[in-house]
Each structure stands twice: as C-alpha cells, then as structure tokens.
Amino acid sequence: MTLSAAENPLFEFLLRQGDNALVLGHRTSEWCGVAPVLEEDIALANMALDLIGQTQLWLGYAGEVEGAGRTADDLAFLREVYDYRNLLMLEVPNGDFGRTQMRQFLFDAFQVPWLTRLQDSTNTRVAEIAAKCLKEALYHLDRSSHTVIALGDGTEESNRRMSDALTFLWPYSGEVFKVDATDHAMAEAGVAPLPSDLHSVWLETVERVLTEACLTLPEGTFAQSGGRTGFRHTEHLGHMLAVMQTLQRSYPGAAW
Amino acid sequence: MTHENEWPLWEVFIRGQHGMSHRHVGSLHAADAEHAIRNARDVYTRRNEGVSIWVVEAKEITASNPSDKGPLFDPARDKVYRHPTFYDIPKEVGKM
C-alpha cells in the first residue's frame, strides 16, 4: 500500500521533481523532426534527453524512498494521470515554437535558483542530483532566454507570437509558488527551501528578459494549480501519457 | 531550400578532449555569433567531443582558388628534404 503525501512527503517531493522533468522532457521530444530549423531541432532533442536523464535520477530515488520496489521506469510508465505531480504549465500542448521556448524559459528561470538551493539540501542524494541537473539547467536557461529575446525583439509577427505565448502561459507560471504541506515538510527537514522564497528572484529574471525581449510583463496574479498536488490535471496530460506509455501498456515489461 | 531571410552560414571548429588544435567539423546556420556557438554546442559536441568551440561566419573566410592549384601546390611535391623524416625523434619529446 502506497503511503499518502502526508505520510511520505519526501516521496511526494521527489515525484514533483521527477514528473516536472519527465513531462517537460516528453513534450520537448515532440519537436523531434519537426522543429522549424535543423539546429533548433537538434537542440530541442538534446534538451529533451537532458530532462529524461534528470527524470531517471529523481524517479529512481523516489522509487527507493517509496520502498515498494518500483523503479524509475515503473513510475514513469505505469502511473495514471492523477498520480502525476508535474506543473500544469509543462503538460499543456507545445503550441508553436515560440510558446515552447517561452514555457522553457519560465521554467528554467525557476529551475536555476531552485536547483542551486537544492545543492545545499540536508539530504545528500537530493544535493547530488541537484548539482548534476543544475549544469544542464544553466545551459537551458542561457538558450531559452536568448531565444525569447531574439523572437520577442524580432519581427512584428514573432513579437506578436511571443506576446500571445506569454498571455497563454502566465496564469500557469505561478503554480510552482503555491506552497502546501509537502513543501513545508521539506523546508522544515532542510531538504528544500520553500518554492515561494524564490518568487522574487524568479520574477527578477523574468522581468529582465522580457524587457530585453520587448514584451510586457502580464499584470495578473491568478495562478492555475492542481498539477503538483495531483488534485486536478488538464485534459491534455492523459493524451500525452497515452502516447508516452503505450509501449509499456501494450507489451508489459518490454525491454531492449 | 533557401529562404531570403535564412540565417547566415557559420563554419565550426572544435578542439577535442585531447586535441592539440581546433579542427573544422562542419557548418551550421545561426542568427549571430553567440547563437552559432550555442548551436555548435548542440550540433557538434553532444557526444562529448569538445572542450572549446570557434565559429566564424563562412563569408569571412578567404579561400585559395582551385584553378591556382598547380602553381600553389605542385612545386612542393618533389622536395622530400623538407620533410623531417630523416631524424629519429626521442620518445621523451612526445607528440610533435
């Protein structure tokens, strides 16, 4: 019997870490072969692979912490929608290239300070995984912020598309800062800071890049939620998992 | 397929893990030099090939003319004495 989030907050925390990387990694991989230019196609595929690699570390450790004998693959391929703990922003469809880049940027702008702080976790496994992921996140942020600036400060059409992307994504971007009992348990144990403590540093990065990208910071503060708690996902995650999990669901235990 | 607004072409040079110098590895398209470095990182170093990247816009390279091949290179063909192959190099010297 699986313990609840309250009974095993570390497991819950690790699922959130792993599911963010997994869902964004899978969404990013959907660009493989169809990105607007070859160079970006390869870069997106690299990033997807980075994220899937991070998933293996987080979910691998999650499986150990759960103690029910589940591997990273079991957690990735054999859970249902309501078991997922990723941010809603990461599961919504990619949209156009610009929206994909804007989402990546909004996520990276959080990941970099977040993973930086996780390096000081009292949990040495968490600290080690964070240190490894941070190097990748730093490059992702470098790339996504430059792309957001290039497209925002590009043509009339690219600016309009980036502006639309920001309008679409903004209500999702605040979910990560809505803390709950799991976050408090992790903060009290010294495993992780409260995500809300990083809001100002995140906003600073976002404001700086958006200004350079000739885009206006949306004023709304309403934030969608339910993804990281598992309370309510969008209708899109089920479709994504159907594609992602089809092989393991059709041929249980298949390996190569 | 070429577009009027296609990004310029860049030539990429990578110095490998144990490489002595940068070697030309290929080319790619990018909007500017920094973008070219990032694209080169993703296109040419994803299998741990490099420790340093140079990029140069292809149009900035001046190349020798293929029709000048005779006068440029033929005179060097029969001057074997210019090759330092008549010496024994001590092992301690290492790579030359």
In a few lines, what is going on in this structure?
Chain A has 256 residues and is mostly helical.
User: What is the CATH architecture annotation of chain A?
Assistant: Up-down Bundle
Strand content of chain B: 15-25%
Task: State the end-to-end CA separation of chain A.
Answer: 30 Å
Q: Give the DSSP E fraction of chain A (strand runs of 2 or more residues).
A: under 5%
Return the CATH architecture of chain B.
Answer: Roll
Structurally, the number of domains of chain B stands at 1
Q: Which shape of chain B, going by the Cα principal axes?
A: flat
What is the class of chain A in the CATH system? Answer: Mainly Alpha
CATH superfamily of chain A: Ferritin, core subunit, four-helix bundle
Q: Which class of chain B in CATH terms?
A: Alpha Beta
Q: Count the DSSP helices of chain B.
A: 2
CATH third-level topology of chain A = Ferritin
Q: Count the E strands of chain A.
A: 0
Sketch the topology of chain A as an H/E string, one letter per element. HHHHHHHHHH
CATH superfamily of chain B: Phenylacetic acid degradation B
Outline of chain A, from the CA principal axes? Answer: globular
The number of distinct structural domains of chain A comes to 1
Largest sheet of chain B: 3 strands, antiparallel
Strand-pairing-aware structural class of chain B = alpha+beta
Task: Name the helix and strand elements of chain B from N-terminus to C-terminus, one letter apiece.
Answer: EEHEH
